[in-house]
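User: Thanks for the earlier help. One more: Dipeptidase. Can you show the sequence and predicted structure together?

Assistant: Of course, both are below.
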Amino acid sequence: MADLQDDIPRTTEVGEDDGLPDDPFRLPPGDLPAGDVPEGEVSAGDLLERARALLAGHPVADGYSGLPWALRHLPGYDLQLGEAAVDTDLPRMRAGHVGALFWSLHLPEGPVGERPVAATLEQLDLVRSVVETHPEGLRLVRTAGQVIDARNRGRVAVLLGPAHGAALDGSLAVLRVLHALGLRVLTLAGTAWAGESGLTRFGEEVVREMNRLGVLADVTGAGPATVQRTLALSKTPVLCTRSAARALRPHPANLSDDLLAALGGAKGLCMVPLTAEQTGPAVPDVADHLDHVRDVAGPECVGLSGTYDSGAVHPRELADASRYPHLIAELLRRGWSETELSLLTWGNVQRVLRSADFTARAAQHRREAPTLRIGDLDPDAP
């Protein structure tokens, strides 16, 4: 097991030193004594127990984890027993009832990002190594059925992606290789073929080939024109792996109500990040965004994105992967039904994965694998 690393920055949560109580539902001193709950109201402890019971049947499918990059900088680690240098390990995932994780293959800025294909393959290799060294707790999966099987066997399902679109190096052949190695999600934003003016001709071919392979498109951070065109073109649901409601917080990665409604109409999935920058400093702020996305896009189009181990600052009481029950308890307090919550945590991700798998099987009988490079369709691309 890794020694504790003093020089590795820990992801923090807002106000972690401000003297707030550990439990966001705990009454402050001077309020009602323990056990004295007004008639007709449910106690905070009861809500938390209900949340844990619901999550036991419908665990969290977390849309974004930066764990691979965080582990890359540790000299050693043991996720099975627990690892203090990161936000995510197996004990905390069990406490948080996490059943599946999308492990990001995103690249940082700097020299590594200048060699995107090799760096993405190195990230992928690291993920495989981590899973292989924790066989009792983790399982690398590709399909919705394999996610269910991993859960039934007591493993956390690990799905590869999102990776950055730059990792394709302008080649559909590279996309196919990454898919063959297990890639399930690709982020379109920040590429030469998915800019502010929308998808180029090559970008459209990327989306079509992703549909044929079963790779999901992530439009987090993309301009409205790219989001709209991707929604219109894709035959499978489109993801926003880290987007909240811009109407509540004007972050560039958050979605306007028009885009949320379009995403809902296309049966896509907006995965709300648990970051203070995008959603706010406390559990109720995150819940406000979840309420808003549910109301605008629909309960079948909202999910969760922990965004742990990504360097982000998290809201109070959502500092690591063990804290999901506290968020679900807040949603129960607000009147979310168990059906809505089961979709939020687990069902919506399963729907999206099943849809992508089904579409890919059908498309592979109709469409040959194209061998295009970006210069074939976008001659002015860099």
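User: Great, one quick takeaway?

Assistant: The longest strand covers residues 60-65.
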